[in-house]
Fold these 3 entries.
Entry 1:
Amino acid sequence: MTELILSLDLCDRRQAASIAESCAPYIDAVKVGYPLVLSAGLGIVQDLAGLGLPLIADFKVADIPNTNRLICDAVFSAGFDAVIAHGFVGPDAVRTCVEVAHDRGGAVYVVAEMSHPGAVEFFHGGVAERIATLAVNCRADGIIAPATRPDRIGRLREIVGRRTIYSPGVGTQGGDIDTVAGLVDGVIVGRSIYEAEDPAAEAKLLSRIRR
Ligand code: C5P
């Protein structure tokens, strides 16, 4: 089954909670990042906990091992189930995230390649492949790969094998959900759902990938 993950990049706590609740029957997890946590506070995690869905902290953690440890400790103490980390910081920094996550029964997904046009500047030319390899070697639970470049997902799949691939970039960023759904374990969708006139109806429509 391909999961549908709601990227809740809203800045209003009540609106975010309400949209997540209305979409909950059609989604498999909620991804929360800086826009929502910095605007609404960490209390949003408690608001969302009642949905009974995994909560993914998209903080793209990218620091030295000690700071990564402090960040990941705080993430899992707040009630998140998984964290997204950058891999370019190197194996010791990624391993620290994985250690903390696995100690807490959580998961780490490493950004192998980003989905926006400018990402090709640094991620292409072998870097994304090296980061994906690092994610495997560091025993991360999976990687993040761009829905905007399905060919790249195929290449990264060769490296990570059966590890999880979550993929953002469909809809507003241009990726086609039906093309990508067959290549990955979960598709991450933000604006196409939460900016829709009826977010729940849009989530229901996109939930066709959960087969
Ligand atoms: O609104 P949209 O569906 O484009 O949201 C995509 C989400 O996934 C955003 O939260 C964005 O920060 C995140 N993301 C991404 N590309 C990556 C990693 C994360 O678009 N490679």
Entry 2:
Amino acid sequence: AFSISIAGGGSTYTPEIILMLLENLDRFPIRKIIFYDNDYERQKLVADACEIILRERAPEIEFLSTTNPKDGFTDIDFVMAHIRVGKYEMREKDEKIPLEHGIVGQETCGPGGIAYGLRSITGVVELIDYMEEYSPNAWMLNYSNPASIVAEGVRVLRPDSKVLNICDMPIDIEERMAVIAGLESRKDMTVRYYGLNHFGWWDDIRDKDGNDLMPVIKKYVLENGYNLELLNKEVRLNDPDWLDTYRFAKEVYRLDTETLPTTYFKYYLFSDYAVKHTDKNYTRANQVMDGREKRVFDECSTIVEKNTAKETNLEIGVHASYIVDLARALAFNTHERMLLIVENKGAICGVDPTAMVEIPCIVGANGPEPLSIGEIPTFQRGLIQQQLAVEKLAVEAYVEESYQKLWQALTLSRTMGDADLAKVILDELIEANIDYWPNL
Ligand code: G6P
């Protein structure tokens, strides 16, 4: 059985991940779970509730929660990392500062995403160093955002570390595609997909017999995007903002009907629409703080007060079972095919070999073997090159402490445009991130 450290123990996602791990114990046996966070108070509430859940459902699992790196990372097989450096207070600033200037304000897209990226690199590298010091054979399964910039930062700063970067966005959309195609599960599909994280496209989707599912999915997306309301089936993320994003995928698809897009192209290709449909005084960060964060923390308090989780309405993070699939692939050499963020090394023709791209990989005990994608259309290649330059400049700016390069990164973002305005936004972001960023 395996020993796991959950870094970002105080995350609102932690309880649903614990429930998911418990649900999967027969596939992935666990002997110890450690919560690690640098925020004692925040983690304590989540940990106290999870300890009760574990006591009731799997008393054989040893449990510990700590803010001490040595305790958090000793005797560990896997680190599951989902940290948010600066928490929702900083996400709110990432969103509101650009929006105040009429520019997309989103946690991983545009200026806000770059700002978050510069905070996250420090946090993730710190976790890698702890892991390597106390459990040198462990793997880190990282899904901390913004995944692309984080992956590039790790490639540059810790090139030999055992870190795999994975994201739930393609998984969420594939679950929707499976519903559209009338399949039981996304695992009944084999996909070809390429791009950067939160910035990719599917160009081939087959069922188990090799039948082409693209036509039926495309037909649906042309009318409804990835919105499943018509099918009376919601997978998750069904609040109004997300529904709008899923619906809007149809506009993105109409612009290029060869491939099926991930949803955040709304922010890059239809930036004006995105800005117009965002309340700059009450952004997604506010929704999450008043919604998910409150709900999860309240529920944790109830569990602690009642000293039982038998009647909890905390939900299992079913979609998060991809993390178990990844851990299993490494532990049991399953050779499962999954989408990971890995170094390009020629997989996508015409894209920098050092780019951290999101593509299908076969994952076994030695890690991922990326599959070759080959040539891609000019439209996609152009968008990738531009966004890649943004991400690489952001990481170079971080490493070299270069104001100039960060200004270039913001200016080059497709959400931006004007260099003067990019500078105004950059200066405000620098001030907001004074406690987090390198000194530019
Ligand atoms: C999707 C993305 C994640 C992102 C999340 C934000 O799942 O793939 O990368 O973190 O949405 O959701 P939220 O509810 O926090 O806005």
Entry 3:
Amino acid sequence: HPGAAGNVLHPVPPLPRAGEHAELCSGLLASRAHTSPKYFYDAMGSVLFEAICVLPEYYPTRTEAAIFSTHLPQMAEVIGTGGTIIDLGAGNCAKAARLFPLLHPHQYVPIDISADHLNDAVSRLQQRFPHIEMTALSLDLAQDWQLPPEVRNERRLFFYPGSSIGNFEPAQALDFLRHLRLCCDNNGGILIGVDLIKDAQILATAYDDHLGVTAAFNLNLLRHINRLLGSDFALSQWQHRAFFNSRQSRIEMHLEAKQDVQVRWADGGRDFRQGESIHTENSYKYSIPDFVALLEQAGFIAAHHWTDSDEWFAVIYAQT
Ligand code: AVJ
């Protein structure tokens, strides 16, 4: 990176698109059609998600930010300084940047699926923190992944804010946390944001806001799929649906056909009946004890947690 002499900034390669075609098709052709939430995040989707984060209805981002503002000094005492911060789903890297003045990492490793977004964010951040070695990686965290040797192993702190863990099924969340535990030496840890179970109406409104930004975010998925598959989804034929499934403790997002719909792509297609839907996202909500139990099953020792006065959101630090 020319602007940051002495620092390594690995250019992020675009994700390999092989396999995505097959994965998308099989999800769309399943009896209950579904897609992975990773397909939300094309360039437009990443911008729409940033807009979601400033919606009044979407409490997680600001609640988590307030928890960090209030408790960051104590977090730094508990966690200690130095080492490598590995930012899982870094996005615009803004959340991690707030940790730097207190945690003083030697290395910062932002990981995100959206390569363009990440490259822009990291080159800006490197100017502000020229003394921190930055190594950007483009990985699909929902697939098998390994950290490359450039990632130092003195003391790895996985940073996983925003409650993105909620996109995993609980069993997959456990596998994911176990994988993180195996990536840490004896001095590692995880600082993770977890959205908590609360009133179903508050939850549902957070995913069905009055401006329709979440609806646009959900519908934009069809445009992304059209580009990836060469399909002919018409956005006007679909509507956003979001609700809290209390039995499974998760928000579900769907795209529902407003009428009978025919969709075609190069090597396939599908008819949807009016009211039929594509399941586009799950966002699991946890209690603090249940999530602590999950961390402990994964081999971490939950050291501390911080929450807001309503207990809507928790930030949990667990160590090896
Ligand atoms: C990025 C997975 C944390 O589940 O709240 C926000 C995604 N989807 N609004 C969430 C999302 C619709 C978000 N995560």
